[in-house]
Amino acid sequence: METLTPIQRIAVITIGLTLTAFIAVFVFPWAGEQIAARMPPAATPPPATHTPLPTAAPAEQAAPSPTPTVALTPPPEFALLEQVPHDSQAAGDNALASLSMALQYWGMQDTQEAIASSLRPGGQQDPSIEMAELAGYARSRGMLAYEGINGNIQVLRQLVANGFPVIIARWYTTTEGIETWQYQVVHGYDHPAEMLVLHDASAGPGIAVSYSDADSAWQALHRPYLTVLPAEQMALAQAILETDEGEPSMWDRALARAERELDADAESAFAWLNKASALVALGRSAEAGEAFDRAEEIGLPAGLMEYRLEYDEYLLDMQEYDRLLTLTQAAADGGTSQEQIYLLRAEAYIALGDAAKARAEYGRALQVRPGWSPAANGLSGLPE
Questions:
Q1: How many domains, the chain?
Q2: Predicted model pTM
Q3: Is 50 a residue whose pLDDT tops 80?
C-alpha cells in the first residue's frame, strides 16, 4: 500500500472530520448527544432562572472558608458543550457577542446591547475591547471571571470537559485581507483529530480548527483566555487554572515557555515577542530590548503592535518618551479606539513636563471610555 505524504494525511483527517460533523448534525442528530453524554456532571449549566449574585460586597465579610481540594481527572477524548449558544456580532464587535454567548450558557440574559451599554456608554464603537473589560463586566453581574495569558490546549480541554466554555483571542485575517484580533468561544474538542470546536461571532457556529492552527494564531496575542462561571464552581475552576490569575508566577511561566519555544525555534517572532512582554510584566524591561528587536527583525504581522502595547510600555519604562510619542502619533491622529494608547502618551508628556498635552491625552482616553479610572485619576492629579 502506498504511503501517504504528511499533506495527504492531513487532507484525509480534515475530510474525515468534516464528514463526521455532517453525519452527526444532518444524518445522526443524536451523535452530538452522545458526545455531550461523555461530559462530567459539572458540564451542565444552571437553569435559565439563574439569579446573579449581589454586585457589591458587604463592608465586612467573615474570613472565607478554605477552598476544598478538587481531584482532577484527565479530560476525555471528546467533549462538546452543546448548550453554548451562537450569537452573531452586531456593529462589528465580536468581543461583546463572545461574552454574551458565555453568559447565556450560564442562564443569564445579557445581550450584546446590554453589555455595550455598560462597557461603551454613549454608543461608542470599540473593536479593541480587552479581556479585562469583559472580565470586569462579568464580575459586575455577580459571576466569577478568570482571565490570563499563556493558555494552552490542555487547559482548554480541561475547562471544556468540566463544563466551562472559554473565550480566547486570536490573530485573524478577514476575507478582505484585514489583519486584526478576533474573540472566539471554545466549547468543544476532538482530541484524536486534534481539533478545537469554537463559535465565531462573524464566521459562524461550531467551527473546527486544528490545534496547530489555533495555537499559532493564539500565540500571536500571548494566548489570552477568559472563562466566566458562577461562584459555586470556583473550586473546580481554581484547580484547573492553578489559581494563579494575575500573579507573578503566571508571567514567570510565560517567560519560561517563551524561552523553551525559542530553544525549539530561534526564528519564532511570536516567541521573541512573548519573551519580551513577560520581561516587561516582570519589571525587567532593561532585559527586553533584544527580544523586541529580534521579533521585529524576524517579522511580525502588519498592525499587530497596534494591538499589543508592550513595546510602548517598554519605551515608557526605559524613559524613551519621544520615541514612544513618535510611534503612537499615527494611531492617536487616526482616532484610535484604544484608550491605553492615550494613557501611555499622557504619562510620557507628564514625564516631559508638559501637563497641557497630558491633559489632552487623558481627555481623549475618556472620550473613548467614559469614566475609565486610570485616565480619570490621572486627569484629576494634574495641576490646574
A1: 2
A2: 0.80
A3: no
